[in-house]
Amino acid sequence: MKLYEKTGDHKVTGLKDGTRVSKQDVRIHLMGELDELNSHIGLVRSLTQNKALWQELLEIQKILLAIKHGVEEPEGSRVKSVANAQVKDLEIKIGGLEKQLPQTEGEILPGECFYSAQFDIARNVARRCERRFTEVAACYPMDELAAAYLNRVSDYLYLQARLAEQAQQGFTLEQQIALQVGNRSAAAPVTAPAAEPAQEDITEPVAEKIPALCKDRVTNRVKKFSTKVNTSYGTFYTVCVLNPDGELLATNSLARHSVQVHGSMAAAKEALHRCKIQGEKAAGVARNGAALYENGYLVGAVGIYGGNEKMNNEKVQLAIELLKGAVQR
Asked: Structurally, how many domains does the chain consist of?
């Protein structure tokens, strides 16, 4: 079957029962806007490593698809696409989010971080769907619970955006990561202090003898780490391992540009910065990251994103133990 059949070339399209209607029909507009909303929610779902949130967003997407199918039903039908329990369930989730956030006054300016901005875009599309739904309901029988659900979805997305800002999630650019690392300005050089002049009787190490992390070993041990700590539907810990130049060697995240990966990379880069300024004595676990040393040489760093700092530091220590000896031989 061809993707295109040329049946829509005359500015009409088909409903579920085969009825041909104009592409300007308000129902067609609503169906397209519901698709747009579903896509934006799919985007924020793809960026999260929080399994509970991932599942909540997936459930919302499924219900939005059911609402779309209800809109597509022939004129005169009143399809129940949303159950009362589904509206109540979303209201409970909204109540839980409200308890986590302080009271705010005045307008909120979106864009504090990439992740919250994506939620805000989805929230605004949800509002547009709600307005269009009202327009359609003035002409055709519609499911009133679907209208209520769209209203709750926009509230839910708004609160998720504010929660993301509160947690300071999301880095859109490398510059934002640099600013996040220790709250230093980008002008602060990440360089090692000048080395002491070598004594004549001390031989400089041969470059070939300097150990480096083996990417394959690191990847396998990162998988082992993930198996150990991410076995339930609780907090998902994202780990990133960098080489001494700050380049990513391995991560357990499938979304390389996600909020979690940026956060764990920032922690690892901060650990590299500490060691390049203070030496091996600063290689310990701190602020969600730590440097990795082998035989007195800096070979990389590990960073964790997921829980609070205490929980993350515990996972960093576990990662260090698993990564010991993961050098080229």
From this structure: 2
Domain boundary among 125, 143, 166: 166
Residue with more model confidence, 125 or 283: 125
Say whether 286 sits in a helix, a strand or coil.
Answer: strand
| Cβ-based neighbours of 144, under 8 Å, separated by 6 or more | none
- The CA-atom distances, in angstroms, between 9 and each of 3, 5, 16, 20, 23 are 14, 9, 18, 12, 10
Identify the pLDDT of residue 191: 39
Are residues 184 and 316 located together in one domain of the fold?
yes
Q: Which residue has the higher pLDDT, 68 or 49?
A: 68
pLDDT band of 258, cuts 50, 70, 90: confident
The boundaries of the domain holding residue 179 are 174-323
Name the helix (H) or strand (E) containing 217: helix 215-229
The answer to whether 284 touches 297, Cβ cutoff 8 Å, is: no
- The letter for the amino acid at 317 is Q
User: What residues contact residue 19 under an 8 Å CB cut-off, 6+ apart?
Assistant: 74, 75
User: Could you give the 3-state DSSP secondary structure of residue 252?
Assistant: coil
- 28 and 151 in a single domain? The answer is yes
Residue 8 counted as domain residue = no
Token readout for 20 is: 């041909």
Q: What is the pLDDT of residue 10?
A: 52
Domain boundary among 110, 136, 166: 166
Q: Which of 325, 313, 174 is nearest to 248 (CA)?
A: 174
- Whether 7 maps to a domain, the answer reads no
**Given the structure tokens 């061809």, which residue do they identify?**
2
Same domain, yes or no, for 201 and 112? no
Contacts 24+ apart (CB under 8 A), 117-120: 117/161, 117/170, 118/40, 118/43, 118/44, 118/47, 119/44, 119/157, 119/158, 119/160, 119/161, 119/164, 120/157, 120/158, 120/161
